[in-house]
Structures are given as structure tokens and as C-alpha cells.
Amino acid sequence: MAKPRKPKNEDAKPDNSGPLVRHQKLCLSIDLAHRRIYGYTELKVTVPEIGIVGLHAENLGIEGVSVDGEPADYEYYPHSNHRDSESERNWSSVTSPSSAADAAGSCYISALERELVPNLLINCCKAFKGRSEVQEQVVAAENEALQSSEEAKQNLRLIRIDYWVEKAETGIYFRDNVLHTDNQMRRARCWFPCIDDCSQRCCYDLEFTVAQNLVAVSTGTLLYQVLSKDDPPRKTYVYNLDVPVSAWWISLVVAPFEILPDHQSGLISHMCLPANLPKLRNTVEFFHGAFSCYKDYLAVNFPFGSYKQVFIEPEMAVSSLSSGASMSIFSSQVLFDEKIIDQTIDTRVKLAFALARQWFGVYITPEAPNDEWLLDGLAGFLTDLYIKKYLGNNEARYRRFKANCAVCRADDSGATALSSTASCKDLFGTQCIGIYSKIRSWKSVAILQMLEKQMGPESFRKILQTIVSRAQDKTRPVRSLSTKEFRHFANKVGNLERPFLKEFFPRWVELCGCPVLRMGFSYNKRKNMVEVAVLRGCTEISDSSDSTVNANSESEKRDNDTGWPGMMSIRVHELDGTFDHPMLPMAGETVQLLEIQCHSRLVAKRLQKPKKGSKPDGADDNGDATPALDIRSSMESPLLWMRADPEMEYLAEIHFNQPVQMWINQLEKDKDVVAQAQAIAMLESLPQLPFSVVNALNNFLVDSKAFWRVRIEAAFALANTASEDTDWAGLLHLVAFYKSRRFDANIGLPKPNDFHDIPEYLVLEAIPHAVAMVRAADKKSPREAVEFVLQLLKYNDNSGNSYSDVFWLSSLIQSVGELEFGQQSIVLLSSLLKRIDRLLQFDRLMPSYNGILSVSCIRSLTHIALKLSGFVLDRVFELVKPFRDIKAIWQVRVEASRALLDLEFHCKGINAALALFMRYLDEEPSFRGQVKLAAHAMRLCKIRGGSDCEDEVQSQTLVALLRLLEGQMAFNNIFLRHHVFCILQILAGRPATLYGVPRDHRPLLLGDAEGSHVQKNIFAAFIPQSKSQELPSDQPHVGVSVPETSGDALRATQSTMDGLSAPAPGALRDELSIATPEASMGGLSVLAPEASKGDYGASEPPNDAFNSLGPLEPFSDHMVSAVDPSAGGLSAVETFKDVMVAVPERSKDILIVPERSKDIMVVPEHSMDSLAVREPSKEADTITNSHRRKFPVVKIRVKRSTTTTSRAEEGDIQTVERSQGGHASSSVSVDAPQRNFRDVVSLSNFEEVNSCHDRGSRMTVSIGSAKFASDADDNVGKELQCTADSSKVSVQPRTDKSPPSFMHENQDAEVQKYASLQALSVPRNDQNGGSFGTVDVQPHGKEKEKKKDKDKKRKRDKGNREDPQYLERKRLKKEKRQKEKEMSKLLSESAKVPSPDIPNKEVLGIKSATLQPGEPSRSNNKLVLRTVEATRPEASGASGTKTITPKIRIKTKFRTLDKS
Fold first, then answer.
1. φ and ψ at 730, to 5 degrees?
2. Alpha-carbon torsion 1286, 1292, 1293, 1296, what sign?
3. What tens digit of pLDDT does each residue of 425-478 get?
4. Is 549 helix (H, G, I), strand (E, B) or coil?
5. Which of 120, 389, 865, 1390 could anchor a disulfide with 876, C-beta 3.0 to 4.6 Å?
6. CA neighbor of 210 nearest in space, from 332, 30, 408, 55
7. How many helices (H) and strands (E) are present in the chain, helices listed first?
8. At 360, is the secondary structure helix, strand, or coil?
9. Where in 632-781 does DSSP place strands (E)?
10. Within 13 A of 962's CA, how many CA atoms are on the CB side?
11. What does the DSSP 8-state code read for residue 389?
12. Do the beta carbons of residue 430 and residue 978 sit within 8 Å?
């Protein structure tokens, strides 16, 4: 029985090694006119035994220190943050980006470590001695021994520090008549002495004296105000915070605020400057709903006595949100009036998250840095709860789906591990800054939602109520939360089993990576079952180097052996209803087969099939037959569509493959927004788009009942499908839809704007942008698209509309920037530029909401200048430059600076752009502007790293960046400092994170999406594009690698390696096979692409928030690699027409590759070692990650058939006979199972519905029905095949994954009926068009007799199995017989005389190939592939001799060398 848990007591005696603050009082007098702050602070501190108390203080003038009322000695060492002589010497050696990145890492870590060291040391020893004597006298005189002895034992002292603020440059800021603080990390010390550490928490008394006309807003509850009798009078605001918090959460804002009390709750107050009061009223109308939502869900009152929301000007704020205890400080740009539509959702979500952060993060704090993810995730969970309740379930699910997609694409390194020391404590809090911060937040919320799905909503709610209620317990409050405690609650309250939690938390919380599942299916009509094949993977990129210091080797080992716990559900939509099947384990073998019983049966009449053997048009084998197969799948199957994990129970990247018609059914009939978005993404990615797809997308677009965000995705999908091949159907549908809603049919011009239907307004706002994304064959915009955008811009009329059209015009202007002007449309450019210039000047006179019109105009002009260069570039530069004026709106000024940086980078390169960036940085007064400029410079560095440019960064530029990193400007703005550090890391090709510094760096390029071609959302900023992934140089090049590319299309590239050269099978609609051995065994690993696993490419960013990366486009017009074995790699690339020869007339049971297929996999003669075979585990549903690998010994012999063939010589060899009109086509299977079953494999008249016939399918299983045949029988056999992703395939070696399991030993009767399900074919095509991929197994005439003899022999030898002498004799006999067979084979080959009519063997067949594994596996198994020869039979001569068909003899044996 487990021991009872010891309760955690927050008031227990701390470690005596350091001081502990029990209470702190802060009294300040603030003079805004002279920008002065002076006052004192009193701290009740438990003094350690050494008698020295260390505090943090920076930029403060210390006037005096006293302990218990007596002056005390102190030493103050302010951090100067200036470069010392040693760093100067290091900078002199900086000559390359790599050395600069090393220096930056050392400099950054040193600065962070210095901040942890107290620099105000106070000597309390003398006061302690005197106080001890006094206490002894008091004890003797007044008989208060108990209390005095406790005080003396605890060494509790009262320390008073009188000080003033010397330079209000960071932590606290003056601007005009406003003073405010922020919660930058470790910057509270810059305005009052404290122990600036998250682990130190205490209660506060706060007093602030300001001018009479000002309001001082601070943390805690306002007790009272005191008006002094000074001249002029001053007012003192007294606050009390009775909840222990760290100094980080103490905030202060002083300004002439207008206060707006909440009309439903007296605890809530909203404050802003007088000019923004009307916007404030409109913005916070909803807020009480969020407040009551959290209160009802947690079943407790708000933890603080009050809650204040303060809105200050954007230029003052360091970030858009700064949280403090019982208050939040926002930028006023989130405020909006009743005329603004587009800002509503974003503002409400931001305010709701800030309120949730008060519960989890401020009130309840993490116990250790490794527990920060939990509080961040709980705050996000509450925010999602509000979104679901007040913004709708569709909005909540859509946002969560996009967030999960972003996490899966970016969670590929240890920097995203949530609770590991290397990714939390060792990063000094920098994991909460930058791009990884948002990814970690989304991942935290997703993990908590997974737990909620596992235990149920009510159980999860009870856990949160328990956590909050125990924090409010007055007797024993526990206000910190750890991952270990939450795991205990999940077991006790959530009723989750300990084995599940033991796997769940280490795998999801302590490690990185998300599961990748690729699935295909086949419907078996005879069994009325759906057979699904699953290929498992992981988003984590395995690092070949072991020199990373921060990497935990034990965690990496666990990662290889630990799977993802849980069981995923597969939902099947049938004719008779919808059925869920929770039967897919999240962990298990790399490849797994599942069988799902259908509940519906067909009643419709079957399609008439052609007779056996008659294939007049090759419909079963030819890729042209795809539409017919789609029709048959919908008529001969009860399946409407299928989905995996429909409720988003797991954070996983899922690729499910089904025919086009099923995707259309899912789009039209499934009401879930996630299902609709998935269907649109898949339909958009099809290489060839039938009109049914275009019509389905158009029907969804015009459906006003559909969710508006998904309708916008359908609009952009239509734009992507528009081309000359489809007669511009997508473009015509978009224009027709817009005109039906916004044009006057009588005059043919746009009607005045009317935005009362808000969802319809948001959809129509995206249509011009979608039209601008349409491209012709020459990558230029059609003239019709340019004219359409110009017409909307010209005739925009907002008279009579009650809503503002500022966002509407902004969308139109950005659409102009997305256009590509060709020869026919360039004449319209001048008209567009005039319209933009007119709007720009108008917005300068009458500024729009947040200057959004000017920002859009500057951005579009920059895009046009970068595309056209030449004559427009200089004109745009001169036009944009005046907007950098210091008097311009903050957003406009920053956008102009970013535009000029883009132009500088385009014209002069990255070195000039970085020099200009540092100059603009000195001129930018606002902290937020500095951060945005640094973020933009970082993106330019990513673009430069993603392209193969030769532009080098000069050493003086690198040194200037290092000086900036160590300077006072970077110290004042921690976000700027982190971005400058990331810039230096990216220039050296390293990840933009402190994780791994200063150890070996893996390249990680993060890029923004190309153009804003989808609607604005907050997820897109963190979805990087993919780039070609390079194998580590120290790993052997084995297997196949089809790298990914960035952009709108994937290019099928081949890597020069010693394995197979496989083109991307984008157009192949016939059956492909999957081989998934390990790369270390020279195997072929076929995996679909993962967008964020490789290096991130980068493209031109449209805004601060990137647009989400759409689905990767499929391959098209692929090429076949013809590999020269002598060259050891890829020597020549030829098109398929150069490899194929005339295809002879086919036999009824021979698979012929159709002529139109361009994705034939050509196997080089030396690369047969790539075809490794695995032995599976006995149970299909066993979840395991490591098994002993057994590889078969495959012997393949090809001899000319003669009448003197000896039956005794054949033994266990299975003969495969093929006839093809006088030509021979050899079929070889390297994974023939170790058993004798009488299955005949054929491709004619199969009765299954295959998802592999779809061009967009990624992996497919086709399974027919099994028939046992005799020697002369040629009936339909059973076929099983897995087809890899036919549109998006990444073939990469996997070195640490478990081997797939397709072959079972099948020795019992129960498994015998599934014998034919366990053979996979690897199709290869010879140069005569024949197939090397399918195996026809025909049993011999005397097979039954031999089987009986073997059974008798087995019974006879059963008693001798334990005799070692018998086993030794048996082994020697077996080896002798094998050597005799090999010798007879060599003799027979040497006796052959080549015929002059036989062509070169290299053209007809396969040379001898022997597989020697590059790296031995753990079991030292070997796969030996011996002589393989194929020859063309002799043609019938004039004498009429009959053509002799060659026979291929195949013998497969398993040899396990490691018996241990």
C-alpha cells in the first residue's frame, strides 16, 4: 500500500542558506513633472545564520539602510552592463557568424546569471547581537518567553531602505503625464529593492503619493485615500495585498484616468485616458460574462479583493498585455468602438486570457520552473472555456484545431519540451519569450484537454476546483502547484489509472515530439469489413550528434522506448448511421493493420464487371481509370466517409486517405468545422481537380449556414484550383459569388456597403484577397482578377453604412499587393497606384483606426516594389520614408521602417539591412517598436538563411550586434535583447533559442508563410514552412530521401545515396507497396512529409502575425531516376518515356504498369539491400516499441524451363510462372512469408474499394478475398497492398523506430485464415514494362505428400529436440545440403552459353545482388539476397519451335543469428 502523502506547508521553515521575506511595505512619492521617485521600503526578513541579507536593486540611489531602527552596514554593486576588457578582446576575434554566435551565447548567459546574484548586501550581525540581549531582558521582565524565543530563533528583522530612482529607463517609465511599470522578467528591482525571484512570495502594503489630479492604480485592494495639506495638495493611495505574491507581480500606473466601474460587479473597474472612454465603454460590455464564467466553473469567488483593467497608449506599453496581481495593463489599441467589427474577437479573447491568468499564474503559482507549463496551460484552458461558451463551439474547435496543427509542425526539438530542466530552468525564463513561448502555451493547453477527454469534463472540473479551494483555505493555504501534484489529482480525483499516467506525463510533458499517423483503408465486400493500415511516425527530428550539453541522455533513451498512451477512435460514416470504433492504439508497431466491422450492407445493384481475363481498356491497371473507381467506390461500398480522432482527443498529426468522393461527402454532410477544414485542405491539394471538387467548394462557399472561417478557407481553395485547365472555374465562382451579394444587377456596379450580416461581411472581405491569389500558367494574375480588384477599389461606397469600412479597404489594398502583373495587366498598375496614393494621403489627414489604412498602403507598395524592382523601387522608397517621422502614429512609423528594411535587404543584402536596422533602433523611442523591428530583422535573417545567397555579414556588423546585446538598451528591454541574440544565432545557422547553447547546434530555420492567402488568425505566426532536410554527414546514406520544399508546390528531388532512388509517387494511381525497414539496416523507409520536421524556409512576411501554412501541394510531373550501379548513387535522371519500352500484350494475371504513370519506382541492381523485411509480433494489437528483428534469407533463382526439371531438386522452392505473349516478366517478392499457403495473387476482378486509386492518397491497403487453389487453378487470389502517400511522400531513413510487422509465422489454425493478409509486394518495373512487384504463388504437384512427410518427420524428431548431439548433426546436415545446392547452381550457370538473340542482361533483368547491412542490428540478423537473374526467352524461329517460358524459383528462409 502506498504511503500517505505529506501535506505541503508553505509556511514551513525554509532552507537556512538564504533570507526569506515575510512582508514588505513600499512607500513612494512620485513627481511626474520632474520625473522623480523617492521613498522607502520596509522588509520583514528572516535573516540567515551568516547574518547577511542579499537583495536585488538596480538603477537605484541608496540613501540609507537600517535594521530594527539602527543604521546598518551595506554594500551596493549595481550591474553596469558595460563591456569589460575581456569581452573587448573576444570581440576582436569575431570574424564569422559562427564565432559571433558563440560570443553572443556566452554574453547572454553571463548577463542572465549575473541577474540572479543579489547586489545589495546588508549586514545584520551587529543588530542581531543587540537585539538578542534586549530580548533576553524582555523575557525575564515581562514573562513573554515563548514569543520572544521564537522571534530570536527565526532571526526576524525589519530592514528599512531609503532610496530614490536615478534613471527610470526600465521596470518603470515616464511618458508625458503617465507613469507605469511592466512585468518584464527580473525588472521589479529597477524601481524598489526586493528579492526579485519567483520563489520568494510575501504580502505587501503599498502607499503612493501623487498629484491631486492623478490616479495611482496598483495591486491589491484600495483601502483609502488621503489628501494632504500641502500646496499644491497631494493625494496618497493606500493599497493592501493580503495574498503572497512575488515582486514580479507588483504593478503601478499613475495617470489622469477616467474610471469606469463595472455595472454588474463592484469588484471590477476599468480605467483609461479620457480620449478613449467611449471605446472603453463599448469594449468591456462583455467582460462580466467572462468573469462570471470562470467564477461559476471554479465554484469559488475571485481570489483578490478587486480587479482593475488599465488601458494606456500603445507607445508606452512594452507589450500588449502586462499582468499584475489583481490588475492587468493593456495597450489601448485593443479598444474599439461600435463601428469596428474585425477587432472584436481578438480583444475579447485577450481580455479573457488576462483574467484567467489571475487565477492560474498570479494567485496560484508554479512550484518550480518546470511547472510553469501547467499554470500557463490552465489559464489557456479557462480561456477556451470562455470562447466555447460565448463565442461559440465552432470558434473554439477551429482555433484549437489550428493551434494543434501549429504545435505538430513546430514541436520537433527539445526546446518545446514542457517540463525538462534543459528547456525550463536552464533557460533562465527565456522560454517564455519569442516564437517558442506561443508553441509551448498551445501545447500545454492541448495536453490538458487530452486529460479532460480521458477523465471526463466533470472530473477535470473537480480537479481545478480542488486546486483553487485549497489555495483559499485559511487554515493551511497552498498556493503553489506542481506537475507531480496535478498527476496525483488526475489519479485520485480524475480516476485515471497509474500505468496510464506513468506513460502519459513523461511522454507528453517531459519530452518533445508529436505522433504522426498516416492511414489508408480498403473495403472488403465479402466480409463487410473495412481494413485500415496505419503508419506511425513522430515529428521529432533525431539529432545524430550527442554533444548537446543541455540534452538529457536519459530522456532521449526513454523517448526511443516510450510510446504515446491511449486509444484513438476511428469514426465510420455509413449508409445506416455513424459508428465510432476506439481501436487504434497510439503506440505500437510502425505499421499496423486493423479490421473494422461495418454495420450497413449494400442493397443497390452491382456494376456489371468485365469477364475474367478481359481488360479491353486496362481500367484496373491504368491511372486514367480513377474517376470510374471513385464512382464504383461510392456505389459498391456502404461507406460515406471516415475520420480518425474526430473529437481531437489527441495532439497528433493525422493524414487519412480516402477517395475524392468521400472527401466531398465529408465536406458537404459533416457538420463539424474541423472535418470541413480537413476536407477542404485535402481537396485543394489534389494534383488534378475534377469539376465535382470545384462545385463542392463553391457550394460550401455560398452556404450561409456554414462557419465563416471555413467558408474563407473554401474561397482560397477555389482560388488555388483556378487555372486554364479548369477554364478558370474557381475564379468565375468567386467573382459570381461576390457579385451576387454586393453588385447591383441593373447597372453592374458595386452597391453601397452594408455590413449588418457580420459573418457574410467577413467572408466577402476575404474574396478580393482570394481573387488576387489566382495565377495563370506564367505565374501572373489574370487580367480579369486585376480588373475586379480595381473595380472594387474604385467604386467603394460606405455612405449609409453604420459600420466602418477601414478593415474592408485594408483588405482591398492588401489584395493589390498580392497581384502579379503581366504584360496584359501592367497597364492597370498606374490606376491602382493612384488609388493607393489617394488613400494614403487621406489617412494622413484623417487617421483611421490604429492607422490601419496607412499600414496597408505601405505594405502593398512595398510588395509591388519588390516584385517589379526597376522604376518603381526608388519612387516607393521616397514615398514611404516620410512616414518614419517621430510624430507619426506608432504603428505607421514601425511599418514604414520595416518596409524600408525590406527594400534595403532586397537591393543591398542582409549586411546593409542589419546596419540600417541598428540605426532605426536608435531612433525608435518606443520599446514595442524596438521589439517589432528586431523581430522583422530576425525574419530577414531567416529568409537569407533559407535562400542560397552568397551575401556575407561583415565582422563590424557582427561586433555592432554584440555591443547592442550587452548594451543598456538591451538591458532595458529583455524582449529586444532576446531577439538580438536570436539574430546572431540564425546568422550562424542555429536555432533561435537559448536551448542547446553553447553546445552543438542543429540548424532550425523558421519562416513565415508566403503571402497572407488565408484569413487572419493568431495561429499563422508560428507555422513555419518546410525546407529540404539534409541528412547528417556522419550517418551512412542509405534508403531513400525525398526532401521537402517550401512554397506552393513540392518539387520531386532525389538524393544521391546508396539505396533506392525513388521519385515522388504523385501521379501513380495503381497499387504501390510500402517497405519500412530501418535505415541502419539499409532499408527503405516511406513516410509522408511533415511540414515542420526539417529546416524552416522563409518568405516575405506580410505582418507581425504570419498567415497559416496551407496544405502542402502534391507532386506533379515526376521523373524516374535511372541509377548506374557502378557510380554508387544517382548518376542520371531520365523521364519515364526514356525508360519504358513497348508494353506487350498482357496476360490476365500479370500486372502491367500503365504508360501514363510517371512515378515508376526503378530499383537499381545494387540496391536490393534496401528491401529489408521485418518479422512482426504475434499479436496485432500489442503495443510495443522494441522487438527482436528477424530478417529472411531470400534466394531467388531464374532458370529456363525444361522438361527435365527435377522435382526433388525443387524442395521447398516455390515456382512462379508468368506468360506474356512471348515475353517474360519476372515478379519477385522479398517478403515472402515463411509458410506454405495456397494463395494465388491476382489483380483481376478484385472486389474491394481502394483509397489508393485517389491521387491524393498517402497510404492505402487493398485487400481482396482469399481463395485456395490447386496447381492448375488460376482463380482470383488474395491481394494486400499498402500504398504510400501518392501526392506527398517523404522517404527518409528512420534509425530508432521499431520495425514494421507484416509477416506472421502463422502456425495455428486461427491465424491461417489470415495468411494472405501478411504478404506485401514491392513493385518494381523492368525496362520492358514488366512488373517486378507481384508474386503469384502456385503450389507444386506433390506438395501435399511432402507436407505429410514433414509432419511425420516432425513427430519423429520431437523427442530428440533436447538432445545437443542430435541438434548439432541436424545443423551440419543442413549446412552441407545448402552448400551442395549452391555448388550445383554455380555449375549450372557456368554451363550456360549465351544466345545471340538474347539482349544484354542489364536491360532485361536484374544482376546479382548481395545485401550487406551497413549497420548491424541489435540482434545481428542478416538479410542475404543471392543471385537474381532474368533473361528473355528465345523467340520462336522459322522452324516453329515453341517459346519456352522461364521459371523463377524463390526460396525464403529466416535466419536468426542471435539466439540470445
1. -60, -45
2. negative
3. 888 888 899 888 999 999 999 999 999 999 999 999 999 999 999 998 877 777
4. coil
5. 865
6. 30
7. 38, 43
8. strand
9. 639-644, 653-656, 743-744, 749-750
10. 29
11. I
12. yes
Cα dist from 246 to 7, 59, 690, 714, whole Å: 22, 20, 62, 49
Nearest Cα neighbor of 1052 from 1136, 1169, 1153 is: 1136
459: which 3 cell numbers?
472530473
In contact, 203 and 243? CB cutoff 8 Å: yes
Q: What is the phi/psi pair of residue 933, to 5°?
A: -65, -40
Collect all residues with Cβ–Cβ distance below 8 Å to 1383 and sequence separation of at least 6: none
Dist CA 906 CA 909 (whole Å): 6
pLDDT score recorded for residue 1184? 37
Whether 1178 and 1190 have beta carbons less than 8 Å apart is answered as: no
Q: What is the enclosing helix (H) or strand (E) of 758?
A: helix 758-772
- 375: nearest Cα among 396, 358, 399, 352: 358
How many whole angstroms separate alpha carbon 661 and alpha carbon 135? 88
Q: Which residue has the cell 512595398?
A: 862
If DSSP codes are grouped into helix, strand and coil, which group holds residue 1456? coil
Please report the beta strands in 389-528, taking only residues with DSSP state E, as ranges in sequence order.
Answer: 480-481, 515-524
Pairing of strands 52-55, 268-272: unpaired
Q: What is the DSSP letter of 1425?
A: B
Strands 577-585 and 567-574 turn out to be antiparallel
C-alpha 1087/C-alpha 1259 separation (Å) is 9
- Name every residue whose Cβ is closer than 8 Å to that of residue 183 and which is 6 or more positions away in sequence: 248, 249, 251, 322, 323, 324
The backbone region for 1101, taken as left when phi is positive above 0, alpha when psi lies in -120 to 50, beta otherwise, is beta
| Residue 1145 vs residue 706, higher pLDDT | 706
Which residues, 6 or more positions from 146, have their beta carbon under 8 angstroms from its beta carbon?
none
What phi-psi label fits residue 797: left (phi over 0), alpha (psi between -120 and 50 degrees) or beta? beta
R_g of the chain, CA atoms, integer Å: 36
All three cell numbers of 1111, joined, read 496544405
Q: How far apart are CA 980 and CA 917, in angstroms?
A: 11
C-alpha–C-alpha distance, residues 994 and 988, integer Å? 14
User: Which residue in the block uniquely carries the three cell numbers 547491412?
Assistant: 1413
CA 268, 272, 278, 279 torsion-angle sign = negative
80-84, 392-396, 903-907: least confidently modelled range: 80-84
> Cα(466)–Cα(250) distance, rounded to whole angstroms?
27
Calpha distance 299→994 (Å, rounded) = 40
pLDDT more than 70, % of the chain: 62
Q: Which three cell numbers stand for residue 322?
A: 502586462
Instruction: Give me the amino acid identity at 665.
Output: N
Instruction: Please check whether residue 683 is in contact with residue 691, taking contact to mean a CB–CB distance below 8 angstroms.
Output: no
The SS3 assignment for 743 reads strand
Cα–Cα distance between 1152 and 1121 in angstroms, integer? 19
Question: How high is the mean pLDDT of the chain?
Answer: 74
Report the distance separating Cα 679 and Cα 667, nearest Å.
6
Q: Which of 861, 761, 878, 879 is nearest to 818 (CA)?
A: 861
**Nearest alpha-carbon partner for 1221 in 1275, 1152, 1136, 1270:** 1152
1084, 1088, 1052: which is closest to 1067 by C-alpha? Answer: 1052
Q: What is the pLDDT of residues 860-887, one digit of tens each?
A: 999 999 998 777 888 888 899 999 988 8
Looking at residue 387, what DSSP letter applies?
I
Measure the CA–CA gap between 1087 and 518, rounded to whole angstroms: 8
Close Cβ partners of 434 (under 8 Å, ≥ 6 residues apart): 978, 979, 982, 992, 993
Q: Quick one: cell of 441?
A: 502555451
Instruction: Report how far residue 809's alpha carbon sits from residue 793's, in angstroms, rounded to the nearest whole number.
Output: 8
Distance linking the first and last C-alpha atoms of the chain: 37
- Residues found in the chain: 1460
CB 1329 within 8 A of CB 1323: no
Report how far residue 1198's alpha carbon sits from residue 420's, in angstroms, rounded to the nearest whole number.
58
